[in-house]
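User: Okay, second chain of the day. Same drill as before: sequence in, structure tokens out.
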Amino acid sequence: MFFHWLGGLASGSFYVPFRRVQHWSWETYWLVGGIFSWIIAPWILATILTSNLIATLKSTPGWTLFWCYFFGLLWGLGGLTFGLTMRYLGMSLGMAVALGYCAAFGTLMPPIFNGEFLSKVLGTTSGIVVLIGIAVCLAGIGVAGMAGVAKERELPEEKKRAAIAEFDLKKGVIVATFSGVMSACFSYGLAAGQPIKEITLKQGTPPLWQGLPVLVVVLLGGFTTNFVWCAILNLRNRTGNEYLGVGKAPLLRNYILCAIAGVTWYLQFFFYSMGETQMGAYSFSSWTMHMASIIIFSTLWGLALHEWRGSSARTMRLLFLSIAILVGSTMIVGYGNYLATHPTSNAALEQNVTIQTLEGVLGFI
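Assistant: Same drill. Structure tokens below.
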């Protein structure tokens, strides 16, 4: 849980340095930051922390590399539109809508596809607790969305523009929906990379770092999609000269800010891969914990950046309620994983504890 919270903090914070980039178009700073996110940071850390990275990738079956890369391509479509989501909805509402779809699809599809949903999830007490935690997470995301809609209705147009220069609810929700569904493909890419984990472990990589070689392949697919789209925008908008400092842009400052944003973005999956190794039989639930953590910290950033200034007391209560529900969902998922790794010898006791947990959750909501 601690590793997933660190990942959520990194993901919820990465866009902040981008806000300080000056006189660069979106496609320019997104691609510069992406080079650090999807190429530089993954390769450097995987090379340092794993054993024989190149040998591991060479030993991986071609179909495994293909599926990891392919799902990375699809995730890249969600990733590049995720940046547009931030532009149109802001950090708080944008994260809630996009990650709501991403949490649902990214968490549940892998065990369903692998044929493990009935046996591992619905067929065990611990699995049901994990599933309830996922449902609570989605409820928290829904409450966050309600708070965002309430804010949009309350604030006058000039205040919306002051906090989010390109605020557009209709366009933002459409983009966020597409982004969330496609972003879930990252989870599929990680699941497809299981053979890579097995190979790197045989090479002598410590279990904590086994997911890093998988990230190298999946993120390469994401880089491909984003590079093509940003290059097209650079040509269409004639913004390619921004990389060389033509105009008023503070070149060194912008590159440093983009590097910080890019590396911070990568750290979300660096910590995610670490947390996933500790989740036992329900590693798929890592995706829900990651999404919940991202929304919690992005909402806190939204508050710090005054995106909610001028909202009513009712809207703020909804916002803080969503944070509380999301925090509770991570605890429920963690408890479900605990039950799976520490089975009690007294089945009645386990059932009683589970019932009390569910009653407490329902009462809290």
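The radius of gyration is 21 Å.

User: Thanks, on to the next one.
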